[in-house]
Amino acid sequence: MTKPPGLRTLRFYRRRRTPPGAPPGTLIPDPTEPPPVIRVMAYGPEAWTEETITEVAALRDFLATWPVTWVNVDGLGDIGVIQALGELFGLHRLALEDVINLHQRAKVEDYGDYLFLITHMVALNPALQIEQMSLFLGPNYVLTFQHLPGDSLEPVRVRIRGGNAHLRRYGAGYLTYALLDAVLDGYFPVLEALGERLEGLEALITTDPHPDVRTRIHDLRQDLLALRRAVWPQRDAINALLREPTALLGPETRVYLRDTYDHSYQIIDLVETYRELAADLTDLYLSSISNRMNEIIKVLTIISTIFIPLSFIAGVYGMNFDTQWPLNMPELGWPFGYLWALGLMAGVAAGMLLYFWRRRWL
Length: 362
Prior knowledge:
By secondary structure, the protein is α+β, with helices and mostly antiparallel strands. The chain has helices spanning 11-14, 59-65, 79-89, 93-100, 154-161, 165-169, 172-185, 187-207, 211-243, 251-316, 337-358, and strands at residues 37-43, 48-53, 68-74, 107-110, 115-124, 128-137, 141-146. The chain folds into 2 domains: 11-288, CorA soluble domain-like (Beta Polymerase, domain 2), CATH 3.30.460; 317-358.
């Protein structure tokens, strides 16, 4: 997905446009959202077409002509377009409110004539970006809403253009499965990149545990927490599709949904494993810092220990006794007394270093 850089990961879980106490179904778009761009892909077993339209009314021809029509809306900045689409497809205002308010958990709601699903797409650009995608499944159409351009659904478009037999033959329910599967498949490259970050941080901690590493570990844990919040409800939503019977999803589609359900489990397992590893990295960082501090203190202690006898020798020869008396430090009047004192200090230091080395303190 092509997303603006610098967005925080948890932003999409905290944004809410409807003020507290507003009537249900109130539609208040975000003024910072881009205007909607409506992209249509319509297909059947033998042919397909793809267009970008500017008038919602033009969708009637696609719905009346083609076996399956996929309408993708990028941008939620024009409430008039959103309402026009809701009127054309007969969508409930509560569902449209959830489309506009980008703080929803992944879920599935059955409105009788259509299903309403919410899922989340992820990408690294280079920061982790999580985008809500709302999906409506009808008898012969799929309507998707995204609030930013760019997504992880391009493989599905390529399969439609290439004449994929399953996708072109099984109808709108199978298209919904394909979209959900593409969304979940988009998690694996992100998790692979986060896994590489984990390995890099582990190597960095063992070699150079500088303070910046702690911030990077914290950011990684926040990304993994955001992924966990995104994928856990998606697993429950897919399970609801499998558990609750509906005519919009045929038996052939449910078989494939089981595979998507397995993918969600794999993603959750990876996320939980990486979260544990990230927590271990924090302990490893603290341990590395403590060990490094111990090594520094050890070196400083050895240096101080070596200088203790040297200071004693220097202190003894600095007492300035009268050298005329035989017992009062005759070395002070000896021509080689200075060299003798330095050699004595060097010998004591070398002897202590050798002792420390043999005791494996160095």
